[in-house]
Amino acid sequence: MFWATGTHAAGWRHPDARADAAYDIGLIQEVSQAAERAKFDFVFLGDRLASDPALQHSNPAQISRLEPYSTAMAIAAATTHIGVVVTANPTYSDPYAIARLMASLDHLSDGRAAWNLVTGADAAAAHNFGRDAHWDTARRYDWAEETLRVVRDLWDAAPEPDGTGARRIDHRGEFFSVDGPLDVARPPQGHVVVFNAGTSDRSRELGARDADIVFAGPQPTLAKRREYYADIKARAARHGRADHVAVLPGLTPIVAPTTEEAVALHDRLNALLVLDPEREVGDIVRAGGIGEGHQRNLTSASEVFGVDVRGNDLAAAVPSSTLAAVSEEGARRLTEITRLTRRTVDGPDRITYGDLVHATPAQLSHVVVGNPEEVADMIQEWFEEGAADGFNIYPAYVPGAVTAFTELVVPVLQRRGLFRKEYGGRTLREHLGMAVPPR
Ligand SMILES: Cc1cc2nc3c(=O)[nH]c(=O)nc-3n(C[C@H](O)[C@H](O)[C@H](O)COP(=O)(O)O)c2cc1C
């Protein structure tokens, strides 16, 4: 999971979705229980430390949400085996606070906590924490690395539940002075499992050297996904930890019993997107130009595809001659549209103007549209071709897309021997096959 209202920007508007899901803890618990019945490793909670009221009608999931530590505690109380991942940004926190909250969550969940360490994509967060600007990459990662060192030292020096074994850490670093010991007993998992999500070289390095799981963003082709995977593993090998870092890309499955139904569902979700009004800009047809992230209309599609498609009916098919004239980036996206919609650049069932518009938003994850076997095929291909060790499944809308995946795709993966039928242990480390680190 990523956002309780779904990861498709219009997921909250789907009739099987609950638009108020972000504040319905009963529903969040039910969805977590459904994922646990399907034997998922974890429920994943994303977070932002800023709001964006401009998105009220287009993507309310991005405006506000429950604070993730509290949400995770409520999920842990309603489940027994599934892990709970909390996104926490050290740029705007303090190592002692993170060590204490994560250790508490690990105790309250009997060893099922994980920390998704991000350094933040929201420049607006800086203005909520008394800073003039979001720090540059180097400073954010220097800070994050020292934070992670201090947090793990605090866990290692924490007392046992009976009060024995505690010691000071007397950390004196570039950014922090922390004496310790922590006032929470050592987490049941020793170290809470650490995910890292980022895109920069520094993020890849932190992930490979210090994280248990690298949570990967979307890559445009299978070759790029394999390249990314191999890069993380090679970096991890240089730090002697090739077998200790798992790479999990995000995946949004749009699945239905038949391919036709899945394509129709994807079309329906896209038809529910709130598009920006057309804006007039000069010289829009630039070869390979990329439109602004949030703008979605035929003007932005014209920029992205490098052909002027303004003023057309979104449901109409685009002439083959126009599709043949798109930019190199446009051609890559046409291939992607065909993969998702099964519509083509020539022939009777051609790509529509609406498809061009829907292909322009920045995707947070890879989207796969198909019947259960087709979705399972893609998962198997990535796994067997060296592009993924597993996936972070993002439901497009909640709860319908969660049950669609658990009821339709999980049994296929189990039949193919690709997914567990029972939990082998109780803690998240046990699910992931990761040993408890010694003190
Ligand atoms: C798959 C993925 C998930 C992410 N999830 C979050 C999130 O929940 N909250 C957040 O503030 N940032 C999130 N980020 C953003 C990262 O924190 C990161 O700052 C951003 O991608 C910029 O990359 P860099 O930090 O490597 O420069 C995510 C990034 C990726 C790739």
UniProtKB/TrEMBL annotation:
<feature type="binding site">
    <location>
        <position position="200"/>
    </location>
    <ligand>
        <name>FMN</name>
    </ligand>
</feature>
<feature type="binding site">
    <location>
        <position position="87"/>
    </location>
    <ligand>
        <name>FMN</name>
    </ligand>
</feature>
<feature type="binding site">
    <location>
        <position position="141"/>
    </location>
    <ligand>
        <name>FMN</name>
    </ligand>
</feature>
<protein>
    <submittedName>
        <fullName>Putative monooxygenase</fullName>
    </submittedName>
</protein>
<feature type="binding site">
    <location>
        <position position="47"/>
    </location>
    <ligand>
        <name>FMN</name>
    </ligand>
</feature>
<dbReference type="Pfam" id="PF00296">
    <property type="entry name" value="Bac_luciferase"/>
</dbReference>
<dbReference type="InterPro" id="IPR051260">
    <property type="entry name" value="Diverse_substr_monoxygenases"/>
</dbReference>
<keyword id="KW-0560">Oxidoreductase</keyword>
<dbReference type="InterPro" id="IPR016215">
    <property type="entry name" value="NTA_MOA"/>
</dbReference>
<dbReference type="GO" id="GO:0004497">
    <property type="term" value="F:monooxygenase activity"/>
</dbReference>
<dbReference type="InterPro" id="IPR011251">
    <property type="entry name" value="Luciferase-like_dom"/>
</dbReference>
<dbReference type="GO" id="GO:0016705">
    <property type="term" value="F:oxidoreductase activity, acting on paired donors, with incorporation or reduction of molecular oxygen"/>
</dbReference>
<comment type="similarity">
    <text>Belongs to the NtaA/SnaA/DszA monooxygenase family.</text>
</comment>
<feature type="domain" description="Luciferase-like">
    <location>
        <begin position="13"/>
        <end position="387"/>
    </location>
</feature>
<keyword id="KW-0503">Monooxygenase</keyword>
<dbReference type="InterPro" id="IPR036661">
    <property type="entry name" value="Luciferase-like_sf"/>
</dbReference>
<keyword id="KW-0288">FMN</keyword>
<keyword id="KW-0285">Flavoprotein</keyword>
